[in-house]
Structures are given as C-alpha cells and as structure tokens.
Amino acid sequence: MIFTDIMRKIGKIISAGAGTSMTDKEFLEQEIARWKRSAMRKQSFLGERYYHSRHDILKRKRTAIGKDGALVEVKNLPNNRKIDNQYAKMVDQKVNYLVGKPLTFESENKDYTETLKKVFSGKFQRMFRNASEASLNGAIAWIYPFYAKDGSLQFTFFKSHEILPFWADSEHTKLDLAVRIYQTEVYEGFSRRIIERVEVYRPEGVEYYELDQGELVPDSYRNKKDYIVFENNEGGSDSYNWGKVPLIPLRYNSQEIPLIQRLKGLQDGINAIISDFQNNMQEDYRNTILVIENAEGTDLGEFRQNLTQFGVVKVRSTSDAKGGVTALEVKVNSENYKAILEIFKRALISNAMGYDATDLRTTGSPNQMNIKSVLNDIDLDANRMETEYQAAFEELLEFVKVYLYNADLGDFTHDSVEVIFNRDTIISESEVIQDIKNSVGILSDETLVAQHPYVKNVESELEKLEKQRGEDERDLEYQDAFQPRLESGGMNGERGVLEKKG
Known about the structure:
Number of strands: 16
Structural class: alpha+beta
Low-confidence stretches: 491-502
Helix content: 40-55%
C-alpha cells in the first residue's frame, strides 16, 4: 500500500501512542466505521429523506395519559400524518434560481469558448443541476470527471453521504485521498443480497473493495486501476493518472452545513399543525367524548360499536332519571391554526433565505424595487453559493484543459474563461426594456442585447441584427437609385405613364 503524507503522520502518532503500528487498511477501516456513525453523514441522509417527503411525522403515534400517568398510544382516535413539504420547495427554488438556466462561458479566445460549449453540453448542465440539488440536501456534492470508452471526457457526481474525504489542509481545498462507500445489489444463484462497495481514490489511481462486517476485502472482480486508460495499436492499453484526486467538491456553503439543519424543526412544526387540525376536525360524535345518561346496556364497548355502525342508541327515561346521550363539544378555531401555520411558513422561508411568491401577487403590478426587496434574501444566498460553485469550476477546468490538450482539441493552458450563472430571477420586463432604450448610445449593443429579457443567445441575436441592418441598407440603396426619376415625374410621377412602343 502507498501511504500519503497525512497517513504517515497519523501512523506515527498512533504508533507512538499505542506502541503498535497501524496499517493503511486498518486505518481506513476505523475511519470508515467512525464516519458511518458521524452526525454529518446522518444530516446528509436526513436532507435527502426530507426532500423526498419521508418526514418524521409519518412515524408519529397518537398518545394519551394512561392509568399510571405516563403517555400511552391510543389507536382508536384519528392520527393523521400530513406533509406540506416546504423544505423541498425551498431547495427547488434555490436550485432553479441559480442554475435553472444553462450556464454560459465567455473568454477572449473564441475557440476556447466554443470548445467549452461542447464539453459542457446539455448532459453536463443537467448533471450540474442535480449536483446542486444534492449539495443543498447534503451540504456538499462531488463532481467526478472520467474518460468514457470512446475517449471523451464525461462527468458524474456523488452525494455527500457516499464520500469520506481526507483533506490535506484545514481550509478543505486539497484532497490527500477520498473513500466512496455505496450499496449495490448482487445475485448469488437465485438469491439477492445487498453489499457495500468501497472505492479508494488516490492520486495514483483507484482501489476497489467490499466492506464485510467492517473489514475491507479486495474486490475479486475489479483490481486497482489508473484513471485514464487508452487502447494502443498493439492490442494492449496505455494508462495514465491525473496527478491528483479527481473529485471536485461542490459546496452549498463554506461551513459545509446542509439546508435541512436550519429548517427541520420548522418543517416538523408545519406538518404537526396540519395533522392536528385534521385530527380535531374528525373527532365528531361517533369518535369523541360522550356523556351517557340512563342508556340501555352497560358494556361501553358494545355501546360505542352500535353507535358507530348504526348511528343510534337506545335510552330509557324513568320518573327518577331522564335518558340521553350528549357529546362534549370541542370547538376548533380554524383561525388559530391558520395564524400559527402562517408563522411557521414565514419563519421557514426566512431561515431558508428564500422568497414567497404571494408577496408579489398581492401587490398588483410590482415594480423593480418591489421585486428586488422580495428577492433580497435568496439573492444574498445565491451570491454565497455562486462563490463556492465558481471555486469548483476553477478546479474542474484544470481537468478539462488537460483533456483538451491530450485529445488535440487545443492548448488553452493560459486562457481564462468567465463562467456565468444566468439566474432565473423575476423582473419587471417593461422597466428593463425602457432602461435599455435609455442606454442606447451609452452602452455597447452587445451589453444592451445581453440584458434584454427576450434574448436567449446573445451572439445569435447580434448576428441577426447585423444581417437585418445589412438588408435595410441594401433596401435604402435600392430606393435611392430611383429617387431622381421619382422627383422628375418618371415611372410613378405625374407623367408616370410609360409609352408603349411599336
């Protein structure tokens, strides 16, 4: 096994403290076991679970005070478990706001720009959006560049709970190595079982294991291999490595805190309010508290069953007592529930740094200042996300440049590019268009066209404008050619009747 610098240091510390040396394999086994129990990994699972509407409310039991004063489960009362997934709405809102529209690239080298458009195709854009969603649910997603069988550079991503990183620095900017753990199904004969696979990513290549009761067992089907493998003319293969671990962290924030950590309590409160409201609404005379006066029969279970099935009960009145059945009415004030629910939703949106679209709908025709005020929080959070995403792209472009050079697609080592996140923001189109008109002659056509809300492709629109101007100039020249004859009463003037010869 090859030790990294950090693992050598850790090995020396363990050896000095315990009197025995720890192998690379044993070190990884202990770190994996510790990480699987870590709060950060549990938070990542939690965020994904809540995004897919598997909330804690689904496990809630209806309870009441028992004989000994302790809470006991009550199964004969309504127990609704309703979910209003505001958390998922906030995740989708943030993702769509920042990366809902395709990314664009601008560079002084037009060849570099056109090449990047091909590398970062629609397939990449979709992958990046999904990775962004995973970064909010788990605090961090990992983009993995790899060579496909046809020799092209492809990208995929891993979720936070799959990757155990070993950082070389406290700022978490450089990886010594990383371990990926994931489950997969295999068949042994006709029986199916789930196994845990482990992939160890080092600068020198990737190693494959299975995790069997906490022990790393080398994968019998896959051996250690390099990251880049090409078939040569002799029928064999040539292999290379990137020189670094090819995993790029895509962080939601610099503290690596998932969004669910700020919103879980509020989301649970929303679910509880809605569920409790429906519980109280369903507690009618057939399943609520009854006051029985001189009813026939003494078995309360039989009495309740008859009431539920037939909706009637038999009572008798005597000279001493009058019979009857009444219910203790519990009035449900829906306004109280609405008020509390509104407080919870407002608090969730505020803590998520999102926005409520109803704030715009209730203002009639909002102007640009109203819109900016409503979008202020999500814009600030998008700025923070974009800072982290830009850092990820800087690292990702290093791999892309190596690929382009090795594939003879161009040497762009010293070229820079600006990655533009086209935010899917809400605007007052009429105000923006008027501002563009007022800026004609002050700003370039390219800048103005780029800001127009109806333009999707700036370069294409500029080409269309140039073509249109050329056609207009030719029409003008054509009209000018006949202008003297028109003024002298030629073809269409006062004497504009052509004499027919012959």
